[in-house]
Input
Amino acid sequence: MRTAARLASSLALGVALATALTAVPACGPSTSRPPRATPAPTPRPGPGPDAAVPELPAPDAAMPDAAPVVDWRTRMPPLPARYRVTLLGGTLPPTRPDGRPWDGGERTDSAAPAAFTLFARYLAQHPELEAARASIGLSAHEPDPRKLRTKSPEPDAYVFIELGDQVFRSPVISSSLAPTWSFPMQLVATPGDTRVAKVTVVDWDGSFSYDVLGEAEMSVGTLISGQLGPLRVGPGSALTFMIEPPAGAVDRRVAVRGKAIWHDTAVDIVAGQRVHLEAAGEVCSSSGKCGGPEGQGITPSDNLEGLGALPHGGLVASLGDTRFFVGRDLSFVAPASGRLLLGLNDRDASNNSGFFDARIRAE
Output
């Protein structure tokens, strides 16, 4: 009985303990919160029932606030480019406007301030010609044409072309009322170039003496446009020009033999091209005296015509109707157009030996 009473008491105690544990939270006081209520959205005032509905713009209508679409390629100014302008030929009147012949009453450059003369401006751009100015008009391909230009009823015509700050000079065509020059020039310009191009046709009466046959002006842009017809330069006078592709770049090496006065380089140069010549090597005479492209001293009696004051045996060039000294190195703007010849400043080269190695670059 006593044992049964103990079991009953233990069972009652266990039930009471279990009931107490169930009533106490397992991890401390509860942290749960009631859910927060979401406030209702505030209604926005809208148009009244009689408000007008705005109209949308048509699909093709311009939006007032839209920025215009710009193709910047069409807004960039044109870039300078090289142009080749060729003076083809012309027609000239047989006499002056007053009926007098062209010869007589010559105008001489030396009588006018040098800064304002055409020849002075031309020479100022070509310092390579200064020491050889007496040879201007001489060509290596033919006898001295200046001896043929005596006083005659027909003019010995040539042309100065001033393109912006450049001055070009064509060769002389003797005794002709319809001269054909076929003289190309290269210049750098842009379409619509507003610089002034001035053309002056003259009658040759000596190296620095001439009569003006006619003049004309236009813009450089008009000249390079290819739309220029015969250019009237005076009563009964007109010139014809043509636009051609620019000359290509050149880089060529040639051997200039000491026994040949002139060597054909097979390189054609256009007036206005930038040219660089450099040379090395040695040429010796029969006396055993040798020298490089810079020459062996000045001996006028043994030198080429027009180059007497320049070193004997040095490397020289002929271009169109100009001659000039090269030496070991020379950079210049071509003063004329034609085949470039290189040679020695020596009237009699038959007793020479050796050669010069020359490099020609033009652009």
In short: Residues 108-116 have pLDDT under 50 and may be disordered. Residues 2-23 form the longest helix (22 residues).
